[in-house]
Design brief:
By secondary structure, the protein is α+β, with helices and mostly antiparallel strands. It folds into two domains: 265 residues, Acetamidase/Formamidase-like domains (Jelly Rolls, Sandwich); 72 residues, Acetamidase/Formamidase-like domains (Endonuclease I-creI, Roll). 16% of the residues lie in helices and 30% in strands. The strands form three sheets. Strands 1-4-16-6-13-17-18-20-19 form a nine-stranded mixed sheet. It holds the Pfam family FmdA_AmdA. InterPro entries: FmdA_AmdA. This is Acetamidase/formamidase family protein.
Length: 399
């Protein structure tokens, strides 16, 4: 556990805010003994861009290895918030010892072009030995721990689902949202009116908004639009116990993660979710091309597996086209994995599968389908795939 914020900074005899009683995970603090650990700092992150094939890895691992990765939220370090997280969060009653030291270092020392780069901070790249173009990289989320007991929700630059209308001021509106423990669970809190009691509470469901691999390009991609490489996919299903499959595009995959969230509604309509820093424990497995094709067909973009669902995705600047791409991806998956004829797969999707909008605010919009595994792999199912996750996620022999 991280250290708790002392009460003295709130005045003698004063009761600290409820969020101030929760732990802080500073860099390197409370990392499990023997774990492979990747901190977030100016030497191990990119701010506003994603790794290209030319970027040197900051860590090299083998297929099947787990890594503890610190991530840092961009909220609180951006220029429109002063690019000084200690001063920014002090306005909301956060003591200096509760501000992450790596966030302070990134804000002060990491290069970023505000006119050309995105807002997100990503940790990496991580080279996975044996990963080759045509394979899949399976990233399993084993654990997600909040590093701080607070986050920020922002609407900026006239973006979001209502551009030109909100924010009404035309400038950034950043809403501070502390986390509290209520009835044994952590919740985000908001007031109904500015300065009022925080009587609106919603459950936390932490996930990483950005998970990806390097594209086969010399140029570092902008951090905002997602693509076949993954990136800023903002799929809130990627909580603990789920796996993201990504088509490997360069030797070693060069994986990265970031844009940590505490909670998000599908659509992410205001522009950001409850953005806040997380410590992630992730397992990286190479799925060789032959096994990947047998398990999923030809995967050309992010594919999520949860305990209950297979989740193919569609990405496009046009939301209608993103929907069509998600349907095509779902049909391809059903045909390859379960041998369903196209017209029957189409009927099944229409009757039994939800297509959800991941987000509409990242230049490239996202739609994802939730195909229930039990429908196709339940007891007595003739079309059940014979292999499980363990056999799908095997590395190349000898790599």
């Amino acid at each position: 556990m991280g250290h708790e914020i002392g009460t003295n900074r709130y005045g003698v005899g004063a009761e600290p805010p409820a969020f101030a009683r929760l732990p802080i995970l500073q860099p390197g603090q409370s990392v499990p003994e023997g774990a492979t650990y990747l901190p977030a700092g100016p030497e191990t992150i990119l701010w506003g861009r994603l790794p290209s094939r030319l970027d040197a890895p900051v860590l090299t691992i083998r297929s099947g290895d787990s890594v503890v990765v610190d991530t840092v939220s961009h909220e609180g370090i951006l220029p429109d918030q002063g690019q000084d997280p200690a001063a920014y969060f002090a306005q909301h009653g956060v003591g200096e010892d509760a501000v992450l030291r790596d966030a302070v270092a990134i804000a002060a020392r990491s290069p970023r072009d505000p006119a050309a780069d995105g807002p997100h901070v990503v940790t990496g790249p991580i080279r996975v030995e044996g990963a080759r173009p045509g394979d899949l990289l399976a990233i399993t989320i084993e654990r997600l721990e909040p590093r701080v007991p607070y986050g920020v929700i922002s609407n900026r630059h006239g973006k979001g689902a209502l551009p030109g209308l909100l924010p009404r001021s035309g400038t950034t509106v950043s809403v501070f949202a502390p986390v509290e423990e209520r009835d044994g669970a952590l919740v985000g809190t908001l007031p109904r009116v500015e300065g009022g009691p925080r009587d609106v509470a919603f459950p936390l469901a932490p996930f990483l908004g950005t998970m990806g691999v390097a594209p086969a390009s010399d140029e570092r991609p902008h951090s905002v639009p997602p693509g076949p490489h993954g990136g800023n996919i903002d799929i809130k299903l990627l909580v603990e116990g789920t796996t993201l499959h990504l088509p490997v595009q360069v030797e070693g995959a060069l994986a990265y993660v970031g844009d940590p969230h505490f909670a998000q509604g599908d659509g992410e309509v205001a522009l950001t979710a409850l953005e806040a820093s997380l410590r992630a424990t992730l397992r990286f497995d190479v799925v060789p091309r032959e096994q990947a094709l047998a398990a999923f067909g030809d995967v050309t973009g992010p594919l999520v597996r949860t305990p209950e669902h297979l989740v193919p995705t569609g990405l496009d600047p046009d939301l209608n086209e993103a929907m069509r791409k998600a349907v095509h991806a779902a049909l391809s998956l059903l045909q390859a994995r379960y041998g369903m004829e196209e017209h029957l797969a189409y009927a099944y999707l229409s009757a039994a599968t939800d297509f959800d909008v991941s987000q509409v605010v990242d230049i490239t919009t996202g739609v994802h389908a939730r195909i229930r595994i039990a429908d196709l792999e339940g007891p007595g199912s003739e079309g059940a795939a014979s292999e499980g996750t363990s056999s799908e996620e095997q590395s190349h022999d000898g790599d």
